[in-house]
């Protein structure tokens, strides 16, 4: 990397290549008029935006609490370790914890960029290819925005967590088009929306809030893309094929949950890793936080017909089965509304610099 952007660990340790294959599908039937995906494509074209211009990058961040988040968002808040920390140590942990989370957003968005480009190649219909092309542009913009936020305002970043890396490895390397949709559009993007929402709604710093609000506006379309593309396909699967997808959902959800144990964070700030992870695992506050992260995934999985006994058992074990009957449509619509509210609030204040 160039400029002020540095990794807590050497970047050479964080790079990897994924060997995989994908069939390129050419589709000669261009008559997609009136399809739900074509309507989503139109919305994707209309909602393109420039990260340099829509966001006011001149805004500063508090060096002791960059996003101005409540300390209860820190996994070890209230522990003996936290209570013994000095003001300087807590400020250092806030900076690192927020940079760690934003770094995972950044790496996840690069994964989404790669997957959306793969979907342009793999998608079986022309309308799906159209939308995947707009998503590829969206994801490039998200990588740009999070990279700039970290490089200019934090000046450092964390490498990708092993659980997220392992999940992306599986999603990118799988040759089946629907597994790319399921892994990225439903699971990774679904959890990301809930995590972005914490920063959008709870961060008092307007720059951090705005970046997440605008990204969420795009991600709501991406999740809808996965819904539309898969809900007509999965009823056609055999019982064995459906079981395979359900097993993937279970494994992926455990990986997504485990990424929030934050192993790299505790090591970077010199705190006892085992003790921090143990407190995080048993903390009622953190269990509730991790559960909320699945509030969008669970109803999506149910809607796709993949909520069989094994999946329901896993959701129950993770404490997230209560989300199964939630209606996702109003939540996705609200993401677009909130982004427009940020535009109205910031009207006339952005300089694009």
Model description:
This protein has 353 residues and is an all-alpha fold. The chain has one domain: Orthogonal Bundle (Ribonucleotide Reductase, subunit A), CATH 1.10.620.20. Helices cover 65% and strands 1% of the residues. The chain has 15 helices and 2 strands. It has a two-stranded parallel sheet with strand order 1-2. α1 runs antiparallel to α8 (206-231), α4 runs parallel beside α6 and α4 runs antiparallel to α7. The radius of gyration is 20 Å and the shape is globular.
Numbering strands along the chain, what is their spatial order in the largest sheet? 1-2
Task: Report the count of strand segments.
Answer: 2
List the uncertain runs.
Answer: none
Q: How would you describe the shape? A: globular
The CA-CA distance between the termini, in Å, is 21 Å
Q: Which fold name fills CATH's third level, the topology?
A: Ribonucleotide Reductase, subunit A
Count up the domains.
Answer: 1
CATH class: Mainly Alpha
- Counting DSSP H or I runs of 4 or more residues, the number of helices is 15
- Considering DSSP H and I runs of 4 or more, what fraction of the residues is helical? 55-70%
CATH architectural name: Orthogonal Bundle
Query: Mean of the pLDDT scores?
Result: 89
